[in-house]
Amino acid sequence: MRAHVELIHEDDYIFHAGELPYGEGKILERRLSTDEEDGSSSLSLHATADWGRGAGIPHADTEFYVVEGSLIYGGQELGPGGYVQIPKGAPMDWIRIREGSRVLHWREYGDAGFDPLTTVKETDAEGDVAVVDAEKLEWVAAPTVGPLTPLYIKLLHRDPKTGFYTRLIRAPQGWTDHRLAHHPCYEEFYTLSGRMAYNFGDIDEGTYCFRPAGVKHGHFVAETEIDWIIRSDGELINWYTTDEWVKWGGHAENYPHEHAPVISSLPVRSRSRGEWSGDGM
């Protein structure tokens, strides 16, 4: 399983050579989080020169999201907000990432393995590849529990069998929630823009988080409009705790005892994100 990462800024990670078999060109990666058991990884790719790879079959559910610059997938060029998802075992077309681009890359339920093809027509393997330009999607208000200003969503991909999803979320300036929440699934985010105050450190552009299922978190205040890309391995249900003390006690607002939050050890985090309420305890 992956470690609990409660706020690390991307700049606090070191660069490695990009682990993208059969690729050509120059690309570096920052390993935001990795599952050492099955190879699942969340990576930030930085193309120091043009980089590309031909068609093939990935060994993991595979996603790309353009933060800066552009990538070309099968002849279609995607700028910031461009997103591609390829299911594990499905043929993916050729891909190019232009020099100077920054691209978030995820591999889920598998490692970096890749079986090259001459073209996608070379194989009988099947699977639906999603190619999305998020800039063309409308923001949709998310349902809220309690008297809160709504968050806004752009859904990029959802697996109809597992409920696994990737989506963009926007909080308007002044959005706040002082309840503690936990979920029955993991929650992972990368901050694309904006700034938020949080009792476990500052959240701003480039800040990354991975929370295993059941880990309690909060409180939040959006100091500016703020955007994230968020992934979760199931339906993200908010179970709220109020009148809490320290990190583990409090009143269960809307969940039964069997869904009580996990008492997490101290997570991996960056001191560059600032002090937080757990320091000194």
Automatic annotation (TrEMBL):
<dbReference type="InterPro" id="IPR014710">
    <property type="entry name" value="RmlC-like_jellyroll"/>
</dbReference>
<dbReference type="InterPro" id="IPR028013">
    <property type="entry name" value="DUF4437"/>
</dbReference>
<dbReference type="InterPro" id="IPR011051">
    <property type="entry name" value="RmlC_Cupin_sf"/>
</dbReference>
<dbReference type="Pfam" id="PF14499">
    <property type="entry name" value="DUF4437"/>
</dbReference>
<protein>
    <recommendedName>
        <fullName>ChrR Cupin-like domain-containing protein</fullName>
    </recommendedName>
</protein>
